[in-house]
Amino acid sequence: MATQLKETPSIEFPATQELKTHNHLIGDKAALDAAWEQDGYWFFRDVLDKDAVGRLRQNWIDELETQKVIDPVGSASTEKSVCYNGGSLEHYPFRMDPIAAKRPWPAFVTEKPINDFFTRLFQDDPFWVPVVEYRATPPQQDRSKSRIDGIHQDGPYSPGIPFRICWIPLAEIDSETGGLMLAEGMASGRESYHPKTENGSNGSIRLEDIPADRWRRTTYQAGDVLLMNLWTPHTGVTNHSDRFRLSMDHRVMAVGDKCPIVGTVEDISENHVTVRDASGLHTLSIDPDTYVRNTMGQKLNGPAITEFHKAGSEVIIAYDGDRASVVRPPH
Ligand SMILES: O=C(O)CCC(=O)C(=O)O
Ligand SMILES: [Fe+2]
To answer: Domains along the chain?
Structure first.
């Protein structure tokens, strides 16, 4: 069934169809792998323990109350919605740094039912890459703007880290609230649809470069989880409801996959990085094709590398032999 999101008529917005659900494939590794290649995502409906999701969500509710942009919810369930009360967004922390500072994800992923789900899915222990975005997106004020935040693939921003994007709605996200919209069946070629800009960064994917009949979304509920292939084009859809859109996006892989080094910079130059993790020191070379990046996903070249990455800062490094393919901050 094609559902058209409510749209300002002057702005182009594709018709979307329902996401597939992949619940029936859990336990069948070959079928899961095939769907991963073919569909470019796994969507599992109602698989995450709702109490655990609720405890995670409480961090968002606390922050929204602190910001005075929602009325105190007390013991009311916030699974359906948290209404925006119209409070000022002038100092609103759009990237949710106060939640990031509390680092609520380790407590969540180590809750037994959550860990059990991912262990069963991977038939291996999950490895959580500490790249996490905490989103509490208020209603979009300017309704004349496009509802498409920016079509992108995560792959070209983190080349060489074979993680899966793990997008977790923390309350209902319906078509008005927006949420994530993806293009199905575009990942198997591992092809970047991003136009390259002059400095080697990635420009946004153009809507016209994605076949119009590929777009998928659904009404997401707390308990659902969407895992997405690095090569699947996707975008956030802006919020046209009167509620906050609450989600967390994380990156996960199986311990048996080629996991990146997660550690702190010991020493860095334009040509190398030495990093310390639990297993000791590792030195990797950096060359002009290494995607050394900042928090905004921009590629850093030459002196910009050591202006941004310093001894003591946290990094995630993917590598091939002794060459770094990506050097990135967690956030
Ligand atoms: O939630 C969103 O708005 C976008 C999420 C996203 O791009 C991602 O999880 O990779
Ligand atoms: Fe993304």
So the answer is: 2-254 (2.60.120.620), 261-328 (2.40.50.320)
